[in-house]
């Protein structure tokens, strides 16, 4: 049976996990903190993995978020490489892959997400790479040292960032983009054309309207147009899947592949919270649950979960947003994530631009490059459901 000395158990080792641990202590939480993670190293910065770290412009010392002293001073025990395999919310216990059983007082599920490999022949070959963890970034960087070319499958932000980074390392890079321009469905055709031009300007060959049909020998790709590209490196940037299996096994409410929570990040189980990619949390400002896969929002949700675990709850009300750095160009985006029925593109001087997204006449999102005032104003317009500017 759980007692007052049993730990605040955090399952995961990403931004939501570390943010929760920090907020729990800042809010006066006194339980020991135990973090159990599948990753083999303490929480580290993931945004650089597709950018300066991949290009070799930053090293290992730039990745850790906090020093070892940080964990000691805050009484945070981090146990890497031993993921939780089962959970009993009635007994408030978990069991790890190594056979360790832990009784918790309160628990946060911050298990994140994992790369999706498309269901095509050869995509599961270990030589075919993904980019999600520090270990996968190290492997990609090592392989890039001896490669002349790469095929990046997918034109999302990770795909765009990695493609430019590999091109800057001197590789011949081909991107397979299923749509007419990169990210047309998410960002609109005008923004997609800008992304395409940025990529091609960096030397990336963007093959639009082209899908992956198969991978051969881990290094050649065959497209749905029956073309064969001898790649050297095949990088799949084809999306992620929330790691909700543990929650499902434990009987928590899971919707749309994510753990359902209220606006305080509480799940359907007593004393269990969820945050980050794996959570489908209720946003009080949006008045509905939102799936989010952004680094900054994982930190925000983790903070709220940590505060709630310390009996100092807050409400999730922020408009989800993120930054993406493609080469030297910064994109800033804030939106509820709904489908939109209008995208108003406005070009500014020097290549800057703003895209306002609307849904039934209300502002539903904003995308900017070099227009910070619009980005800062946009989040409030989205939050308030204001008319499109």
UniProtKB/TrEMBL annotation:
<dbReference type="GO" id="GO:0016651">
    <property type="term" value="F:oxidoreductase activity, acting on NAD(P)H"/>
</dbReference>
<keyword id="KW-0560">Oxidoreductase</keyword>
<keyword id="KW-0274">FAD</keyword>
<protein>
    <submittedName>
        <fullName>FAD-dependent oxidoreductase</fullName>
    </submittedName>
</protein>
<dbReference type="InterPro" id="IPR036188">
    <property type="entry name" value="FAD/NAD-bd_sf"/>
</dbReference>
<dbReference type="InterPro" id="IPR023753">
    <property type="entry name" value="FAD/NAD-binding_dom"/>
</dbReference>
<dbReference type="Pfam" id="PF07992">
    <property type="entry name" value="Pyr_redox_2"/>
</dbReference>
<keyword id="KW-0285">Flavoprotein</keyword>
<dbReference type="InterPro" id="IPR050446">
    <property type="entry name" value="FAD-oxidoreductase/Apoptosis"/>
</dbReference>
<feature type="domain" description="FAD/NAD(P)-binding">
    <location>
        <begin position="9"/>
        <end position="284"/>
    </location>
</feature>
<dbReference type="InterPro" id="IPR016156">
    <property type="entry name" value="FAD/NAD-linked_Rdtase_dimer_sf"/>
</dbReference>
<dbReference type="GO" id="GO:0005737">
    <property type="term" value="C:cytoplasm"/>
</dbReference>
């Amino acid at each position: 049976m759980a007692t007052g000395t049993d730990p605040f158990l955090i399952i995961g080792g990403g931004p939501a996990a570390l943010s929760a641990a920090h907020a729990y202590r800042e809010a006066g939480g006194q339980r020991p903190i135990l973090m159990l993670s599948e990753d083999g190293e303490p929480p580290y910065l993931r945004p650089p993995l597709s950018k300066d770290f991949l290009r070799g412009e930053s090293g290992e010392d730039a990745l850790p978020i906090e020093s070892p002293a940080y964990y000691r001073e805050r009484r945070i025990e981090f146990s890497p490489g031993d993921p939780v395999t089962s959970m009993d919310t009635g007994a408030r216990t978990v069991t790890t892959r190594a056979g360790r059983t832990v009784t918790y007082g309160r628990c946060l599920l911050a298990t994140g997400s994992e790369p999706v490999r498309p269901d095509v022949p050869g995509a599961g070959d270990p030589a075919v790479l993904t980019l999600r963890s520090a270990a996968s970034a190290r492997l990609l960087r090592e392989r890039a040292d001896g490669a002349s070319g790469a095929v990046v499958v997918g034109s999302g932000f990770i795909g765009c960032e990695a493609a430019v980074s590999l091109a800057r390392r001197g590789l011949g890079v081909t991107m397979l983009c299923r749509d007419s321009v990169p990210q047309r469905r998410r960002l609109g055709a005008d923004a997609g054309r800008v992304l395409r031009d940025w990529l091609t300007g960096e030397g990336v060959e963007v093959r639009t309207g082209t899908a992956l049909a198969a991978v051969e020998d881990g290094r050649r790709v065959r497209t749905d147009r029956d073309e064969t590209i001898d790649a050297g490196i095949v990088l799949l940037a084809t999306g992620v899947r929330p790691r909700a299996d543990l929650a499902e096994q434990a009987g928590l409410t899971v919707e749309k592949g994510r753990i359902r929570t209220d606006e305080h990040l509480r799940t359907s189980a007593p004393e269990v919270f969820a945050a980050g990619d794996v959570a489908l949390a209720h946003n009080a400002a949006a008045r509905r649950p939102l799936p989010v896969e952004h680094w900054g929002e994982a930190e925000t949700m983790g903070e709220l979960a940590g505060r709630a675990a310390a009996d100092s709850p807050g409400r999730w009300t922020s408009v989800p947003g993120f930054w993406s750095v493609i080469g030297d160009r910064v994109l800033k985006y804030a939106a509820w994530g709904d489908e939109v029925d209008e995208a108003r593109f406005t070009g500014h001087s020097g290549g800057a631009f703003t895209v306002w997204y609307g849904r039934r006449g209300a502002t539903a999102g904003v995308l900017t490059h070099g227009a910070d005032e619009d980005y800062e104003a946009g989040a409030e317009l989205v939050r308030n459901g204001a008319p499109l500017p």
